[in-house]
Amino acid sequence: MAETGRGFPTAEYRTRLTRLQTAMHAVGQDALLLTTAADIFYVTGFLTRFWESPARPWFVIVPANGDPVAVIPAIGADLMGQSWISDIRTWDAPFPGDDGVSLLIDTLTGLVPATGSIGLPMGLETQLRMPVGDYIRVCDGLAPRRFADATVVVQRVREVKSEAEITKIRAACAVADTAFAQVPDFAGPGHALDQVFRQFQIALLAGGADWVSYTAGGAGQGGYGDVISPAGPVPLADGDVLMLDTGAVLDGYFCDFDRNFAIGHANDAVSRAHEALFAATDAAMAAMRPGMLASDVHHLLVQSLRGHGQTPGGGRLGHGLGITLTEWPSFTPHDQTELRAGMVLTLEPGVEIAPGKIMVHEENIVLRDKGVELLSTRAPRDLPILR
Amino acid sequence: MAETGRGFPTAEYRTRLTRLQTAMHAVGQDALLLTTAADIFYVTGFLTRFWESPARPWFVIVPANGDPVAVIPAIGADLMGQSWISDIRTWDAPFPGDDGVSLLIDTLTGLVPATGSIGLPMGLETQLRMPVGDYIRVCDGLAPRRFADATVVVQRVREVKSEAEITKIRAACAVADTAFAQVPDFAGPGHALDQVFRQFQIALLAGGADWVSYTAGGAGQGGYGDVISPAGPVPLADGDVLMLDTGAVLDGYFCDFDRNFAIGHANDAVSRAHEALFAATDAAMAAMRPGMLASDVHHLLVQSLRGHGQTPGGGRLGHGLGITLTEWPSFTPHDQTELRAGMVLTLEPGVEIAPGKIMVHEENIVLRDKGVELLSTRAPRDLPILR
């Protein structure tokens, strides 16, 4: 698929496999069991929107040595057969009573010694995408083999992106740049917010997104109430601040950034908030280096915002980005993850302008040895006004 | 929100709560723990695309008596506060080391007696949306309280839709009807499949979809290879069969149906396959009644297809539909779920025209006391030809 600019050459997957197996060896895990769309895409290149159906579990096993094995519903055999994976075992899912459980047990039994350890991501920001009752059955069926937490194994590998991955994320950001540039064409006083959301998604698709997995935003007088709400039919009004945020997907990779707009005019508090958000982002971009901790970035952002007389927003002020809309680490006071070159991240400072009125600003970056490289086109320094 | 045609009146949620609590009482469960977007939306009306971020778990507890309790990340407090739920407890997620675990344990401890049973969906077509390591911690922290499978509790309630829900799904189907009617405007010989997919999503949004959670399809000479692939840039050619499938979302409810088109012309095998698929759907729609089993519908479809000299496709030939793209039951030989009036379902017969060449046909219906009511506009009897 690489000829068309889609997918990756097999060498990319072989490098990922080697990195995972090296990490597995370091913690003594004899196999790695992956169940999520993101982890399976990372190892195999298997890309489909069919994950939207919760009906069936999917499994990929990375053995300590040798190539990955896919244990998947028969409906995926054709598409997985187009990937670099050759060992593909299927069952006729969904199958009441044994929905892949015995096939998974048989496969793991053949790959892992009886006293072995099977890594499974179990920690923060992970999910097990299979029925928990079946997981318990698999645990019983594999004993005395046991599952061990593989969160670190997967996260330390996936969080450092290859140049090929960075190229994909940059392309997804460019799609969103194009769509954000068109916002003045479909948003302004009197336009209903839900129609603005629709037009924004249309602009993302027309700009080349394969699909739009995430749009959110807000609008309100002098600031919005939250950043995760769907849109209602309320028309935008003079004095509103409009925020649009998107995770558009191109070839399986996300962008995730937002843009703010003042409707009609921006009052002084809004202008000051925007200035502070812009400056905090600049400050973080100037200071970030490999070896810092995620919590250091939170501190940089908060200190800059406070220095501008603002009340920093709660929650995280940025995060990892790539195969999912959000990845670890999180820019919070608590996250001690070390930043490394090749991490793709969002900087997402937020402020509370007044009770129930917030403003959030977001850019996408990649951390390099010597500092930050922007992947999104920097937001304008002055808050754009839509009339 | 009901004034604007969005959401449901509180009475709808109270009815759902009563039905769930009645089902819980029947199996002796003292609370129900819900973790997925669909289950939480069903009970609370909390609708956001923020589930796309895997960073944080979300919990809603339905006690045996009284109103639900939300235990959620602080970022969701504003939006959950707009729902009918009044007991909302938050933590500052993501929080390494205790990402809602102690708050969830405290809340469940206060709601469930020490010898009590907490229902959790664990069975076929369910997922536990929280880190499995945290689930184990919650199990330990709640002992001697124990978790028990609540798959049946949730599925028997959610699978029978209210008239208000059916109205939402019908509206989502109407959006897709509108978009499918426009396919001849942007698909035909020479059009690249990936551009057709983009234009189809744009048509769904322009037609009123809030967002498009699922599009898939296929195209190939005399049939396509699978039904879950993303699109490549290959141009459609004379003799191709094009299929487009969508799960467009309106106010949180899905449609899920597809349409087939012949590019330039349809060969005899394709025409016969389409005729058989149309007839099998008719046969099922004429015969389906409450009290039949899901496996009976599979049998009806397979018998009709065989009667037309076709090789029925493997896998399931239809399924439930509503808050997610696919819901239980599954029209397979194995699914013994009883059909009940109010179930919204897809009929999705498929045939293998030749090795590696399939064709799938899909409609959305609601089962009534006296039979089937269509929610999608019936596909044309003759396969449309795009020139």
Account of the protein in words:
The structure is a homodimer of 387-residue chains. Chain A is of the alpha+beta class and 387 residues long. Chain A has 2 domains: 2-158, Creatinase/prolidase N-terminal domain (Creatine Amidinohydrolase, Chain A, domain 1), CATH 3.40.350; 163-386, Creatinase/methionine aminopeptidase superfamily (Creatine Amidinohydrolase), CATH 3.90.230.10. Chain A has a 6-stranded mixed β-sheet, sandwiched between helices. In chain A, strands 7, 8, 9, 10 and 19 form a 5-stranded mixed β-sheet that branches. A 5-stranded antiparallel β-sheet of chain A has the order 13-12-14-17-18, with helices on both faces. Helix content of chain A is 34%, strand content 24%. At the A-B interface, helix 5, helix 9 and strand 7 of A face helix 5, helix 9 and strand 7 of B.
CATH topology of the largest domain in chain A: Creatine Amidinohydrolase
Global mean pLDDT of chain A = 97
Work out the count of structural domains of chain A.
2
Largest protein interface? A-B, 84 and 84 residues
* N-to-C series of helices and strands of chain A: HEHEEHEHEHEHHHHEEEEHHEEEEEEEEE
Uncertain segments of chain A of ≥5 residues (pLDDT<50)? none
| Number of helical elements of chain A | 11
